[in-house]
Amino acid sequence: MLNTLDVEAIRKDFPILTRQVHGVPLVYLDSANTSQKPQAVLDALEDYYSQHNANVARAVHTLGSEATTLFEAARDKVAAFINAPRRDEVIFTKNISESLNLLAYSLSNATTTIGAERFRIGPGDNIVVTEMEHHSNLVPWQLLAQRTGAEFRYIPIDADGRLVEAAIEERIDEHTKVVSFVHQSNALGTVNPVARIVARAKAVGALTILDAAQSAPHRPLDVQALGVDFVGFTGHKLYGPTGVGVLWGRYELLAELPPFMGGGEMIETVDMTGTTYALPPHRFEAGTPMIAEAIGLGAAIDYVSAIGMSAIQAHEDELTAYALTALAKVPGLTIIGPSDPVDRGATISFTMKGIHPHDVSQLLDEQGIAVRAGHHCARPVCVRYGISATTRASFGIYTTLGEVDALVAGLARVQEMFG
């Protein structure tokens, strides 16, 4: 039994979980796509817009000061949540995709910036990712390689959905400038060996970037312990609003990087002959930021922190082990990714013999069960396993064993309908 959290009490904090879909109670198993939001987050958004709405860092009136205080308090909450050494290492973006693109384009801009030698990338250099990356951590680096003439490389995955160990040493070499990799795969659930990859990257002097979009909601995230140079994640998967993400970076690196976008707030001085830039984080936050969304993310962090990330991880680890065992007994079902719960997150992709994943998803939806079907913005994973798509069930803080049972029963019903 699950005894690490009072899940039924937690579920009462999420209004949408009382909904019915097609006349039956909602079973929401798509948290890897986006999480549902607790009432505390909804209240924070309503309070900001109804009581404090103003632009930040510009107005000196009362509402402007209140909005700025709330916005910067959210930055403090993020810094504490990830154990950042400094609050000014936390940059707000609109999502993880923007966080990664910010880095890729800033590195590209560094090729023409005086004093940024350590970031210069060109012919003879290489950029390394893994075969299990989300497109958001593939395409920006492919584009950077095209812009700079660097070689684009990847670490392959094996039949069990884990990185090929020998390839870590082989693909990351003395010419590697950037290693960008996912902490927990959104398509496979695999939790990658961060320490192993970072040690190899550091040995050759490469920058390390961690995509934590799928790990930040599910396990403790300590940027100092991880040892990477940059970490990005997104708010809407962490029980917060859409439209807000985070990029954390070591301050000494952020201070040397040129800006990503130009505009208001990211400047120190502007005249018609040139511009000087603000210090981090504001250098990378051009224009009016996502004020309400950042405040909502701060409320989400307060919510999960009060419960405890270690307790959340223990709950989801137990759910995952239970689900892997139950799904393995479904005839014709093949799990795509690690079949054991070790170093594995609460995201399970699978195929069913003779039934297209989209049909599986649609028929489950008719039973009130929400899952995702497709390549999950990680098409190279599907190519690796010779499949067009998978069905994916993903869990969150509010998921119960009963919902896993409902999924298994729903899949049996799908098989009956297909004969």
Assembly level: single chain
| Number of H/I helices | 14
Question: How much of the residues is beta strand, in percent?
Answer: 15-25%
Structural shape: globular
- Please give the CATH architecture of the largest domain: 3-Layer(aba) Sandwich
**CATH class type of the largest domain:** Alpha Beta
Task: Give the low-pLDDT segments.
Answer: none
CATH superfamily of the largest domain: Type I PLP-dependent aspartate aminotransferase-like (Major domain)
Q: What summary fits the major beta sheet?
A: 7 strands, mixed
What is Rg?
Answer: 22 Å
Query: How many strands?
Result: 17
Total of domains: 2
CATH topology assignment of the largest domain = Aspartate Aminotransferase, domain 2
Keywords, separated by commas or semicolons:
single chain, 419 residues, alpha/beta, Aspartate Aminotransferase, domain 1, Aspartate Aminotransferase, domain 2, 2 domains, seven-stranded mixed sheet, 14 helices, pyridoxal phosphate, EC 2.8.1.7
Structure description:
This protein is an alpha/beta fold and 419 residues long. The chain has two domains: 7-30 and 308-417, Aspartate Aminotransferase, domain 1 (Alpha-Beta Complex); 43-305, 3-Layer(aba) Sandwich (Aspartate Aminotransferase, domain 2), CATH 3.40.640.10. 38% of the residues lie in helices and 17% in strands. It has 14 helices and 17 strands. The strands form five sheets. Strands 4-10-9-8-7-5-6 form a seven-stranded mixed beta sheet, with helices on both faces. A four-stranded antiparallel beta sheet has the order 13-14-17-16, covered by helices on one side. It has a two-stranded antiparallel sheet with strand order 1-2. α7 (194-204) links the parallel β7 and β8. The longest helix has 20 residues, at 62-81. It is globular, with a radius of gyration of 22 Å. It starts with 6 loop residues before the first helix and ends with a helix. Belongs to the class-V pyridoxal-phosphate-dependent aminotransferase family. Csd subfamily. It catalyses: (sulfur carrier)-H + L-cysteine = (sulfur carrier)-SH + L-alanine. InterPro entries: Aminotrans_V_dom, Aminotrans_V_PyrdxlP_BS, Cys_dSase_SufS, Cysteine_dSase, PyrdxlP-dep_Trfase, PyrdxlP-dep_Trfase_major, PyrdxlP-dep_Trfase_small. One of its GO terms (molecular function) is cysteine desulfurase activity. Catalyzes the removal of elemental sulfur and selenium atoms from L-cysteine, L-cystine, L-selenocysteine, and L-selenocystine to produce L-alanine.
